[in-house]
């Protein structure tokens, strides 16, 4: 039987300027997931139904409840902490265009 073994990143500190982008990154993760679902023929439905391909989370990120948003936030937080633990630095290019 498989047992997940994520790398421990509990002691990794995320820089404040990266933490401030958490919602932007979480929204992006949700939008990528939703775009893939929609491309695969899924549509909004009040209940998840794998046969009918309906899912209640096929809504804008802002319309998700906090429990559903927390999934995206935890994914983003874990990814950022892992990148930092692996020795990467995250820096903003001051000349880059910022999303709206």
UniProtKB/TrEMBL annotation:
MF (Gene Ontology): ryanodine-sensitive calcium-release channel activity
GO biological process: release of sequestered calcium ion into cytosol by sarcoplasmic reticulum
InterPro entries found in the cross-reference section: Ryanodine_IP3_receptor (IPR015925), Ryanodine_rcpt (IPR003032)
Record field: transmembrane: none
One term under GO cellular component: calcium channel complex
Record domain Ryanodine receptor Ryr: where: 2-92
One Pfam family in the UniProt entry: RyR
PANTHER family, A to Z: B30.2/SPRY DOMAIN-CONTAINING PROTEIN, B30.2_SPRY DOMAIN-CONTAINING PROTEIN
Name used for this protein in its record: RyR domain-containing protein
Annotated source species: Micromonospora rifamycinica
């Amino acid at each position: 039987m498989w047992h997940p073994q994520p790398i421990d990143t509990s002691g990794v500190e995320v820089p404040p300027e990266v933490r401030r982008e958490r919602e932007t990154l979480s929204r992006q993760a949700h939008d990528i997931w939703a775009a893939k679902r929609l491309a695969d023929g899924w549509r909004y439905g009040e209940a998840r139904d794998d046969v009918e391909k309906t899912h209640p989370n096929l809504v804008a990120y802002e319309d998700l409840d906090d429990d559903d948003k927390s999934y995206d936030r935890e994914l983003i937080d874990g990814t950022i902490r892992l990148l930092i633990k692996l020795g990467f630095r995250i820096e903003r290019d001051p000349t880059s265009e910022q999303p709206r």
